[in-house]
Design goal:
The chain is an alpha+beta fold. The protein has 5 helices and 4 strands.
Length: 176
Amino acid sequence: MHVNKLTVLSAAVASLIVGVGAVAIARTGNQPPSQANINYAKGVANLLQNETLAALLKEFDETTAANAAQGKVAIGLIFNDANPAIRLIGNLSPLDPGNVPRDSFERTALFNAVNLNGTPFEAIEQSQDEDNNWFYRRSIPLSNFHPACVICHTNFGPQNPNEWVGALTLRVPIPN
């Protein structure tokens, strides 16, 4: 009988230790990221922004009235709505339903781009899923600056670099 009580007590203590350890691990995921980790994510965002804009500008250079439909498909494969790291958002009709802002960050980013003359927006956010990961988010306002814009987006009207039409948003995970 004494052995059973000792076994039960040992199991209870071991469970308590494991439980406290699990809570401590879970809490570290809820702590805001360090400035060094935020800076790292910003560096990744800088590279992602450059690479994404390079792809967009390359598509602009190659798009003509003759291949505009193919250009839309090609750029749509890059800005795939299943990729949470990069999104194009806007509010001018006709609008692909996938380009409507999905959350408060994107609504603010679009508002800033369109109503505040191309003002960028950034935030550090914690995901609301079971992982509680942290993300650096940035918006890059987009204007009707290139002749190719109006080839695909006839609703934009004539080329006008002062007409802010949407934003490119980036979502970069911040390492632990």
